Amino acid sequence: MAKKDYYETLGVSKSASESEIKKAYKRLAMKYHPDKNQDNKAEAEAKFKEVKEAYEILTDPQKKAAYDQYGHAAFEQGQGGTGGFGGFGGFAGGAFDDIFSDFFGGGRRGSQTETRGNDLQYNITLSLEEAAAGVSKEIKVPTWVSCDTCHGQGAEKSSDVVTCNTCHGTGVVQMRQGFFAVQQECPTCHGRGKVVKNPCKKCHGEGRVQKTKTLSVTIPAGVDTGNRIRLSGEGEAGLNGAPSGDLYVQVQVKSHAIFERDGTNLHCEIPINIVLASLGGEVEVPTLNGKVSLTIPAETQTGKMFRLRGKGIKSLRGNAIGDLYCHVVVETPVNLTNKQKELLKELGESFKADKNAKHSPKEKNFFDKVKTFFG
Ligand SMILES: [Zn+2]
Ligand SMILES: [Zn+2]
Fold it and tell me: Where are the domains of the chain?
């Protein structure tokens, strides 16, 4: 497909001045803006690429001279006599949005003059009990707050705030960046459009001061590590009366000496001695709300699990409450007295004497397997 003449693409004459070319380019760039071409975006994008290519060539004196002399051949690799333009002419896919954000100074819709304060993050560490029950905490956050001496104006008197001379109050300046004329934040007033002649002594003209503020945070029952609580407007104060940022309280729940948490459920180990395990009985087990009694049936083995319904943690969303899982561990007795050792020996003898009884349910099974293995 033969390429359209660059001058024709921009709708200008061959003798057009640089400013005429720029004007034509801006008009066409607006025309083919994606927001104005919702129904035929692909076509608009193709058109825009053509326009941009023409503009880039015709506003570069060296490339323009080459084009005027050799036409499109000047920019095709391996053809024409000029060389040196090999890298030019390609457009990366998806470059369209970037082009527009460069051109219109960031943000495709509206200008970006907002100077909202920064969001802040505060890390809070809670005990499992606090996370389960919910808690109210006082936190101290170093932040910027609006200066109360100048009421955020940054000036000694309100008559000391004057319109910026560099940008004439618009807060932006036109700059040339590569092939584009771009809008940039005014370097003199940093986009405020106003400058302070006689800065406030307390805030040095910033309009805000650094201060540690104390906040009370209500942490709901059921929070877990990774949850974030947003305190709207409690972040840094904005510049020049702009809205404040938000404060995010990032929750970290400490590990617990007894309980392990799994969502709304809790797990804990219950060590019991061989007598209780053998004969059964009652054992006290801990919960987050105090001790409760758990019945251990006779002949309980290690690994047996008891579920205590509703003794877990309340769900952060909704009213469901998790369970507490008690995992039994039967312990071998230690530090035995001579008397106790005698009793155990006696017990051992009675096991031997009692040939047909199965006192160790796993052991019998285990030695049967060993026999098969070696047999
Ligand atoms: Zn300015
Ligand atoms: Zn001040």
Answer: 6-104, 120-253, 270-331, 335-375
**b (16+ CB within 10 A) / e for 155-166:** bbeeebbeebee
CA–centroid distance, 105 to ligand 1, in Å, is: 16
pLDDT at 356: 73
Beta bridge partners of 251: 124
Q: How far is the CA of 200 from the centre of ligand 2 (A)?
A: 5
Q: What is the mean pLDDT of each run of 10 residues along the chain (375 residues)?
A: 79 86 86 77 82 86 78 56 32 35 34 67 94 94 83 84 89 78 83 85 84 90 94 81 86 96 96 96 94 96 96 92 97 96 94 80 79 81
Residue type, 258: I
The CA 62 to ligand 2 mean position distance, Å, reads: 53
202 Cα to the center of ligand 2, angstroms: 5
What is the predicted pLDDT for the residue at 194?
84
3-state secondary structure of 351: helix
Contact 284, 291 (CB under 8 A): yes
Q: For the whole model, what pTM was predicted?
A: 0.54
Ligand nearest, relative to CA of residue 147 = 2
Q: What is the CA radius of gyration of the chain?
A: 39
Q: What is the CATH number of domain 6-104?
A: 1.10.287.110
CA 204–ligand 2 middle distance (angstroms): 7
Distance (Å) from CA 13 to ligand 2 centroid: 57
CATH number, domain 120-253: 2.10.230.10
Asked: is 270-331 a CATH 3.40.50.2300 domain? The reply is no
* Cα of 160 from ligand 2 centre, angstroms: 12
Query: Ligand 1 centre from 186 Cα, in Å?
Result: 5
Instruction: In whole angstroms, give the CA distance from residue 270 to residue 279.
Output: 16
